[in-house]
Each structure stands twice: as C-alpha cells, then as structure tokens.
Design a protein that fits this description.
Helix content is 15%, strand content 27%. It has 335 residues and is an alpha+beta fold. It folds into two domains: 180 residues, Mannose-Binding Protein A, Chain A (Roll); 133 residues, Roll (Mannose-Binding Protein A, Chain A), CATH 3.10.100.10. Helix 1 crosses helix 3. This is C-type lectin domain-containing protein. It holds the Pfam family Lectin_C. InterPro entries: C-type_lectin-like, C-type_lectin-like/link_sf, C-type_lectin/snaclec_domain, C-type_lectin_CS, CTDL_fold.
Amino acid sequence: MKTIITCFSVLFSVNFIECSFRCDYKYSVVAKGWFKHFVVPATWYDARLRCALEGAVLLSPITQELEDEMSQILKNFFTSESEIFTGIHATFSDGNYFSIEGIPLSDIPLPWAEHEPDNMEDDERCLIFNGNGDLADRMCEETRPYICYRNGSKEVETNECGTVDNEYRLDTRTKSCYKFHTVPRTFARAHFACSAEGGHLVIINSETEAQVLREIFAKYQSGTMPGLFWKNVAFIGFQDWGERGDWRTIHGETLSEAGYAKFSPGEPANATPGEFCGSIYRTALLNDLWCDKPAPFICEKRPDHPAVCHPLADEENTIDLRSNDISKLRLDCTV
C-alpha cells in the first residue's frame, strides 16, 4: 500500500506539487526541501535525535536558500529576540564546529552576534541562529526551538507502513506496523523514539497481537543483539503512571480495557525498587521492568500515520519566482 497525498500551493502559475516525505513537514520550492519547526524548546541533543528519527537532520544555514528559509520561519512563528538551535556543533572536539552534514563552520559564511562566540564557562559547543541572521554559541544542554530538514534530493519509496523506514513491517492480522529496536533505551527514550518515528510503544490489544509480538521477538535472538543488557525482555506501552500497581497503557486504558492483561507468573513483582514500566518476555507475557535501565523495545504505528507524500520532479512544475515573499512558496501537504 502506498499513500499518495498532494501538496497544494497558492501561486499565480503553480497549481500543485507532490511531496516525497512526511506531510507534517512543509515543502519549500526555493530551498528544495522539507521543513518542520518545533516551538517546544529542546536540548540540542534531543533536537538532533528527533530530527534523525523522523528521517531528517537538524537544520543548519549551510546555503543561502536554507538561511532564507530559517529567517522566514523565525519571522513567521517566533519573536525577533528568538534563537533556534542549528545543527552546527563542536560536540566531538572543542572548537571544531561542523554541521550535522559534516560541513565545517569555515564554509558557512555567517556573521557572529555581538560579543560572540564567547564559550561562556568553557561549555558552549552548539550554535544558535537568531532573528538577525547571526550565530552565537550556547550550551548544548540548554533548550531552544529548532527546525528539522530533509533534502529534497532524498527521494525514497515509502513502504506499506507509510514510512521510508523499512524496519517497519505490516502484519495483516492486526493491520498495524511494528519495529523491533535492538539498540536499548530507557523507557522514556524508547517512548521518544517511537513517537518521533510516527508511532508509539506497542500496546497489546488481543491474544492475536501477543502472538504477533512473540513471532517478532523470536527473530531477534540474544546473540544477534550486541551489548551488555537483558535481551529477553522488551519495553512496550504500559506503566503505572506513578500510582504503584495501577497498570495502564500509555493511552490511559487499563490493561483489561486495552484487551490484554496476561502477566508472566509471579509478575508484576517489583523485585527491586523501580520496576514501574511495562515490558514483555519472549513469551509475550507481561512483566514490570526498571524504567531507567535500557532495554530493547517495540514500536507500533498505523500505516496511514503520519501521511507520506510522493514527489514529481521539480522541473515539471512552473513556479512564479518573481514574488519576494518566499513564504508563498512553502507548500502545505493536505489529504
């Protein structure tokens, strides 16, 4: 199944263009790419990770077109004093700044803001872009809004799960898509990853779905997962929400309401303090697990969410570029 959704533009000589990426992104004809801005501030590390999990990168002003797009987004959605994180960083070695794509700062000719860079307290290794088009260094652990970007040249066919991520597989028994993550994360980071990928930690709604997960888990034997962590459990989408013993899914239902409440014998045990998050054994029987200890996890997503659009070649579209307002060239994806 391939989801085809068109993206419309209100221009004098353009009627429509099709996109080849998630339709929660906006397509810019001038910048030839897809953009999504986040107003909720995040650390640089979380911003980079979310963009990567969505199939994009944390945006940097590495071309004039991208700089113009960043300036326009700042103008449209933020205040003149706002700062947004860029993908330019020196997290690998002090003072050596590169964009996420590996472009050195010396090849990005942008001015510094007044009194910048100052590397305050010898701890500022991530760069922001402000409403004046200037750069400044900031602590990566501080929080700022940010923009994710996908280059328009990356035209990847979407699969039956409506994503460019081919690790998702559709199961016809449940009509849901699943992905087993072998790189362990804490429960919070697992939830983060599934959400960014357009899904959620899997919620078991039936014995049939439990069987699906047994089969998925069986494909990932312990020897195939490198690293020192417990490989016979995987986080799924339930926890006690801070009320000990009140197990509910991440969508707020009791396990019985969701359709599956079969714990492994002797579980939940809270054998050592902190087992407040949900997991399954390879049997697909439920288990309580430490929230802060990394484990494999399973994501679930609907095939139609988020919507993914397919492109036509840019040269097949006639664009009136005489307007100076590039915001008119940003295309909204609609069903």
